[in-house]
Amino acid sequence: MRDAYHEELDALRVDMVDLARRVRTAMSRASRALLEGDLAVAEEVIDGDDDVDQMRRDIERRIVDLIARQQPVASDLRVLTAGLRIVADLERAGDHAVHLAKLARRRYPMTVVPEPLRPVIARMGEAAVGIAGELEEVLATADAARAASMERHDDTMDALHRALLREMLETPWSYGVDTAIDLAYASRYFERYADHLVSAARHVNYQVTGQWTAEVGDLA
Amino acid sequence: MRDAYHEELDALRVDMVDLARRVRTAMSRASRALLEGDLAVAEEVIDGDDDVDQMRRDIERRIVDLIARQQPVASDLRVLTAGLRIVADLERAGDHAVHLAKLARRRYPMTVVPEPLRPVIARMGEAAVGIAGELEEVLATADAARAASMERHDDTMDALHRALLREMLETPWSYGVDTAIDLAYASRYFERYADHLVSAARHVNYQVTGQWTAEVGDLA
User: What is the interface pTM, i.e. ipTM, of the complex?
Assistant: First the structure.
């Protein structure tokens, strides 16, 4: 039988998967809002951010409480401190979906994305949603090998980011400086969203193996 | 006489002030690199980031260790968990100084900033350095009232950010889409740098008073 401590750890894991799912849904909607100029969907993403923040706070509070009550050492402490980093990364990924939704809202009823650049922006949205879906499974299964393999997504999104900038520089620019600025921000938000999810995956790998897949900060 | 626990808390505070000082110096140099196209200074900022990351990890490790060993409750737990947020904010502020330095390096031997926009970018750099200096004092003195007053700096930097975007839209644009993109990013980096320092100040206020000066996430 599982003791109360491990039951609480299991509950934390379930809630982290739920948080990741919300952050994925937010990105899916934010991409749609951006491409289609859909104000209602943009508002959903923006309004949903309070729940994401609240879930992060709730999970953090429970983790700190476990550290203080259980005085865990070694691998148990590692799981908990890495958990703090995972929920911080998830929340910050969610913030970037919100930034995209706010771009869409600010431009409404126009859309942010000029026709020639729609395909690359759509690919960025699909990549971001795919990365979030993969992270959900990694969180649910604590699969270290799969978590480590998520490192490749840094390259996926960097390549799309560079492709967008290149297309912007190669497109005869009749869309104004404001559109150039918005697209630069949009591209950055997709990229940072992916960065945070890859960072979260790195912390899952660390929870399981105690090893870093890349040079990043560690808590414990 | 102070016990070992409070001596460790004092040592943590000293190290947080030191971390804030490094993050201020990084911004001062990054602004100079950006405005003057100074490659050597840009490289200093970029190379210095490892030290900042290492200091964050060191402080975090000591805080988690104190939570596990001392099982603090109430205000002691609040001080420690808020400390985790403060060092995370400081490190992320430092990352934005590095982003600015990398922009400068990428454009070298050209400079990022067209002549008409130099004044507003210079003001952003000065504001950012000033905010960091104020945070150092807030950290050193644990002055809650002064920490709360740092909220105003969100407006300071937002106003400069909007001023830059407005000037970009009003300037007949002969500087290319690439310069528009770089300036959009630079402005965002200054703004995010300030955001993180204001967030750190908010956590100092919370350490002392247990109250939030604005709606933000809390750990404990």
Answer: 0.85
